Amino acid sequence: MTLFILALLIIIVLFGVKNIRMQFITRPVFSFFKKVLPPLSDTEKEAMEAGDVWWEGELFRGKPNWETLHSYGKPKLTAEEQDFLDNQVMTALTMIDDYDIVHNRKDLPPELWQYFKDEGFFALIIPKQYGGKAFSAYANSTIVSKLASRSVSAAVTVMVPNSLGPGELLTHYGTQEQREHWLPKLATGEAVPCFALTGPEAGSDAGAIPDEGIVCRQEFEGEEVLGLKLNWDKRYITLAPVATVLGLAFQMRDPEGLLGGKEALGITCALIPTDLSGVKIGQRHNPLNMAFMNGTTQGEDVFIPLDWIIGGPQYAGRGWRMLVECLSAGRGISLPALATASGHTTTKTTTAYSYVRHQFGLSIGNFEGVQEALARIIANTYQLEAARRLTTTGIDLKVKPSVVTAIAKYHMTEMSRDVLNDAMDIQSGKGIQLGPKNYLGHPYMANPISITVEGANILTRSLMIFGQGATRCHPYVLAEMETAAMEDKCAALERFDALLLGHIGYATRNAFSSVFSALTGSRFNQAPVSGETQQYYKDMSRMSSALAFMTDLSMLIMGGDLKRKEMLSARMGDVLSELYLGSSTLKMFEDNGRQHDDLPAVRHVMATRLQNAAKALEGALRNFPNRPVAWIMRAVIFPLGNHFNGPTDKMSIDLVKGMSKPGPARDRITFLCPDFAGDKGGIAEVENAFVAQYNCRNLHKKIKSAQRNGTLPRKIPNSRLFALALDAKVIDASELELLLKADKLRLAAINVDDFSEL
Questions:
Q1: Which residues pair with 54 in a beta bridge?
Q2: SS3 helix, strand, coil % of the chain, rounded to 5?
Q3: Which positions fall inside the Acyl-CoA dehydrogenase/oxidase N-terminal domain (predicted)?
């Protein structure tokens, strides 16, 4: 006891007496901190400053305020947005024949191009005073998703002008003159935009673009002006082959000092008409046979006035920050919209197909092997829709959540790949035989495009999510890094002392919370709701405190080396991502009014999220380079082992049974894939067969019963079986008519296209 009291007194004196604390703790720790401090490049610093910290900050800090999550509100469409979806979007869907677009035209038909222009599909984000729609991010996402349910090529064509490009950049940064000149033309489709960022030497590392703009004087339109001589070589530029105005990112240099400042000004963005002398629109690429316009552009000694810089000359060198801010918004809308459309389409068609496709005398949806894959499709679709809604909610709140949008881009496009793979496994020949009736082939082929663009997924996972999240979301690290860079050493030490005390308390709380939650099964953690989902909130809080604790120790032990340990930081980023995805699922369940028939999907999703988070933590612990520290962390995070085992077989079976029938729960996660008269893509065909077969389920039960008792034979064609059932008075004439009609629809749905020649 004496030794304990003595040790306690020493600790109190060390931390409680400022002069002693500064001498023996703050000063040595500050010195150590500056040595292990991860260096930030200029582009990293700009990326850090450009985005906002939103809900991911709560998740990263170990004690999420779930009431904050619920306070964000439910995403809703305005009356104008809903009217556009009900009319213009539905009309566009009836005009789409994706097989013809991809295999015959290699382009959208002229009438669809014109309809998109006339009805404002390219003006979704443009302010109303310039002739645009000024729709919300949620509406933008919903429109793109519905188009993608019928054609990836059509969806991308609409998506790009409403994502990163001239419209977005002009709206946020353009001068009044630039807005008044360009935005009305973009809104009506008179001007078709593209944005040239990626080149042969700069892909995911967009900050390394070699294209240059040199400040010089030259004659332009009859007078000598100060401007830029541009040379560029860009590729993978969507809409470039048909663009009339080119947004261009380049390195701006002033070697003669004409602007009176430094020579290298940095990345700059400008708008250039494609008919300007020296501008070359190159040939088309062929992105996995999709028909959206994508190609190259080059420029040789193209001269533009300085006023053509987006935002004017004062925005020279500020292009990277502009791009990061706009890209983070677009990354959270466009590609997640395509991914969610894949989920809605595969759930709608695969639940229907597995009901109408029979093998061994049963619907294939009755086989547990199929149910396992089908449960993953349904659960992933519920997750995709939930993440789409939460992410667009953040964007509509006018925050720029760069970490959240990176999470959405990476995980949602990967889930899209998973649902399409599972759907292909279940629908088999129906999925692989291309033709007008095939609704899986083109999305399956196009999926790697989403994986690749707007930051390759490998880079996004291994560098961006945790790399930015660990610094941006941490309540102390960014401030400590700024303090270390201060020139006034005395002021820096004073500020660091205050930060250090807070940081120590923060780390201690997370360590205690993590071990206590693990030992008590999270029973004492807070949750904002009661009922079945209550435990999920508690377990998520436990994972949050574990991530915060492990992040602190990792940054302390590894310092700047952590950034280079990409596999380790990727796993820790996975924990943050799983927490975000789980949060979106719980929020959507609340937003939907806690519907009981949604619970099977919520159970499956949350079991998966918690399993994945725990697995990522275990993987990080197993590969942590400092083994003694890894043992300490394991004792705190998993003192009783990892018991997050994922969905049970019963969860999967219950989920599939609930979704293998028409109803509100199925409608809520398939509404982005409407079925309508005149559908050319086979979706309405399989859905109509499903509904007809489901409505005949009791008649099929009567026939099965008669087969079991020997009244009717087994294993004979349906047309003959139904006739015998009528003769045996198992069914009546009206029931026979229903059965024959449903069977005709079933056969049409399971059949695939064939051709006299290809």
A1: none
A2: 65, 10, 25
A3: 83-190
Question: From residue 78, how far is each of 140, 188, 378, 750 by CA, in Å?
Answer: 12, 22, 28, 39
Rounded Cα distance, 646 and 638, in Å: 16
Contacts of 94 (CB under 8 A, 6+ apart): 676, 678, 679
The type of residue at 537 is: Y
Q: For tokens 């949806």, what's the residue?
A: 365
Q: Is 650's pLDDT higher than 90?
A: yes
* Residue 278: closest CA among 260, 302, 243, 294: 302
Give the pLDDT confidence score for residue 37 in this predicted structure. Answer: 65
If you ran DSSP here, which 8-state letter would residue 119 be given? T
Pairing relationship of beta strands 245-253 and 193-196 according to DSSP bridges: parallel
Question: 0.85 cut: is pTM over it?
Answer: yes
Pairing of β 362-363 and β 358-359? antiparallel
Cα separation, 301 vs 218, in Å, equals 11
Paired sense of beta strands 294-305 and 223-238, if any: antiparallel
Catalytic residue among 46, 58, 454, 685: 454
Q: What is the structure's pLDDT at 473?
A: 82
Which of 174, 196, 58, 94 is CA-nearest to residue 126?
Answer: 174
Half-sphere exposure of 394 (CA within 13 A, CB side): 31
Amino acid identity of residue 138, one-letter, is Y
CA-CA distance, 305 to 287, in Å (whole number)?
35
Q: Which is nearest to 370 in space by CA: 342, 351, 383, 346?
A: 351
* Cα 751 from Cα 758, distance rounded (Å): 18
Query: Per residue in 81-100, is it b (16+ CB within 10 Å) or e — as a string?
Result: beebbeebbeebbebbbbbe
Q: How far is CA 350 from the centre of its chain?
A: 23
DSSP code for 463: I
- Whether the per-residue pLDDT at 289 is higher than 80: the answer is yes
- Cβ(338)–Cβ(428) under 8 Å? no
Q: Measured in whole angstroms, how far is the alpha carbon of residue 331 from the centre of its chain?
A: 7
Closest CA to 258 of 217, 212, 319, 317: 217
Cβ contacts of 206-210, under 8 Å, gap ≥ 24: 206/249, 206/323, 207/43, 207/267, 207/320, 209/249, 209/250, 209/251, 209/267, 210/251
Among 688, 620, 612, 617, CA closest to 376 = 612
**Confidence check: pLDDT of 344 > 60:** yes
DSSP code for 177: H
Element (H, E) at 34: helix 27-36
Largest CA-CA distance found in the chain, in angstroms, rounded: 101
454 as an active site residue: the answer is yes
By the 8 A CB rule, do 164 and 328 touch? no
Tell me the C-alpha distance between 728 and 466, whole Å.
69
Instruction: Give the integer Cα–Cα distance in Å for 201 and 208.
Output: 8
Task: Give the CA dihedral 344, 347, 353, 354, nearest 10 degrees.
Answer: 180
Query: Quick check: 294 and 287 in contact, CB under 8 A?
Result: yes
Amino acid letter, residue 406: A
Q: Which two tokens stand for residue 626?
A: 């400092």
Say what percent of the chain tops pLDDT 90.
75
State the burial class of residue 462 (Cβ atoms within 10 Å of its Cβ: 0-12, 13-18, 19+). buried
